Structure to design on (449 residues):
């Protein structure tokens, strides 16, 4: 029975593919003439068969925020969802709950790029942090050496925490990500490329593999299995890449995007069939994807767009399952990240607000106010325990901290940058973060014990 269902899904996929070719021919939009590899179609078929078996057995379907549980069978080995440190399930803020104090941190200037430091990312094990710049370079730091710098009685001369500098892009770098195993670093840049760097090769200065996209690559995110990656670009639909073949896939029925960037038509079941593309020619309008991030199991991913919308996507079917239109009014959404339990998304916008959204309903749960960010591509991030939220105030050049549960502002510190930081990134394993400045500098912040 399962085999019959899978075969039928594969046949349907090929029919949809032929229809896509016909549309492509009529609209002069180039598509690869070969049918997409069965690997992705079989992935979909397995998902459909498992869902059908659950219905026949009377097993209730997983809610949207539990979709990650089905990912290991589809994508290989992925980590289980991490427990959230804070329970945001309460519908109303409890005003009687007292806010926690954010521990004091010490900070140290680490290094400087030759131009604006635009982005940063920690490896999952917290051993490395990388920064990207407008000067097209990438600096790789070893966190253990950074901590050695902070020691008051450091011996053996000055410590140099920069262990690699990569030069291979020709335009500014927008985003970075580490492979889940931590040995590969990728970068997305304005030169329409995604580049792969082997951080274990001490002599490597350039990428060993390159993906040539068709648009400015604004954001990149590895699937937790390490076999796929997502690219958010000036194209309105996320690009999914198989990193073994470097082929790009999109949903077969692309959601209809209006001139304001809204998804006017919900994705149907046809979107379960992926279409391989070589070149994509679609109107961009104002839906440019500013950031894209997988959840910790890969069951979902989220996009933050210039049109002010947050869109949630099924990580298996590539369905757009929820659009929060006007999440930050008409202002651009500059960042969006899942909580560890995948039940909520934290967003930041150029309307000077930070918001927490419930994934299953799209309901606004918390709002964090009191910091101005209207110009820079500002990030709002959780600390490693998700008890606090950090962002920046452009006007005062301060780092602002809120209690995640009460939404009360609990700290404001001078950033020590000459101008407001452009990017904050927190370590996933400890009380430490980095700030990247328009003054070209990178600073490391660590809790004072």
């Amino acid at each position: 029975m399962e085999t019959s269902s899978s075969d039928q899904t594969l046949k349907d996929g090929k029919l949809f593919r032929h229809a896509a070719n016909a549309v492509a021919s009529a609209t002069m939009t180039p598509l690869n003439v070969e049918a997409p590899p069965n690997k992705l179609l079989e992935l979909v078929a397995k998902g459909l068969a498992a869902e059908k078996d659950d219905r026949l057995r009377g097993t209730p379907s997983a809610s949207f925020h539990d979709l990650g549980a089905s990912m290991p069978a589809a994508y290989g080995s992925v980590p289980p969802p991490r427990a959230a440190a804070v329970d945001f399930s309460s519908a109303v803020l409890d005003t009687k709950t007292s806010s926690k104090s954010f521990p004091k941190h010490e900070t140290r200037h680490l290094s400087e790029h030759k131009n604006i430091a635009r982005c940063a990312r920690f490896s999952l094990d917290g051993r490395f942090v990388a920064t990207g710049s407008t000067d097209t370079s990438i600096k790789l730091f070893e966190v253990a050496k950074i901590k050695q710098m902070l020691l008051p009685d450091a011996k053996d001369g000055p410590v140099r925490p920069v262990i690699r500098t990569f030069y291979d892009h020709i335009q500014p770098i927008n985003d970075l990500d580490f492979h889940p195993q931590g040995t590969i670093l990728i970068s997305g840049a304005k030169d329409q490329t995604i580049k792969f760097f082997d951080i274990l090769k001490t002599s490597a200065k350039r990428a060993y593999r390159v993906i040539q996209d068709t648009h400015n690559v604004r954001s990149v995110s590895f699937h937790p299995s390490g076999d796929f990656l997502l690219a958010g670009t000036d194209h309105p639909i996320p690009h999914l890449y198989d990193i073994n073949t470097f082929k790009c896939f999109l949903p077969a029925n692309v959601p209809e995007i209006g001139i304001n960037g809204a998804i006017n038509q919900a994705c149907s079941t046809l979107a379960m069939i992926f279409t391989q593309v070589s070149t994509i020619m679609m109107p961009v309008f104002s839906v440019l994807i500013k950031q894209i991030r997988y959840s910790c199991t890969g069951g979902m991913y989220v996009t933050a767009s210039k049109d002010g919308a947050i869109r949630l996507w099924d990580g298996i079917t590539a369905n757009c399952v929820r659009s929060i239109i006007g999440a930050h009014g008409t202002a651009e959404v500059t960042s969006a990240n899942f909580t560890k339990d995948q039940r909520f998304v934290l967003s930041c916008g150029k309307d000077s607000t930070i918001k927490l959204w419930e994934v299953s309903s799209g309901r606004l749960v918390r709002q964090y106010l009191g910091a101005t960010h209207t110009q820079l591509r500002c990030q709002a991030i959780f600390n490693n325990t998700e008890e606090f939220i950090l962002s920046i105030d452009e006007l005062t050049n301060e780092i602002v901290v809120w209690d995640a549960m009460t939404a009360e502002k609990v700290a404001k510190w001078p950033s020590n940058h000459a101008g407001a930081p452009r990017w904050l990134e927190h370590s996933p394993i400890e009380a430490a973060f980095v700030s990247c400045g328009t003054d070209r500098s990178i600073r490391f912040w660590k809790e004072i014990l």
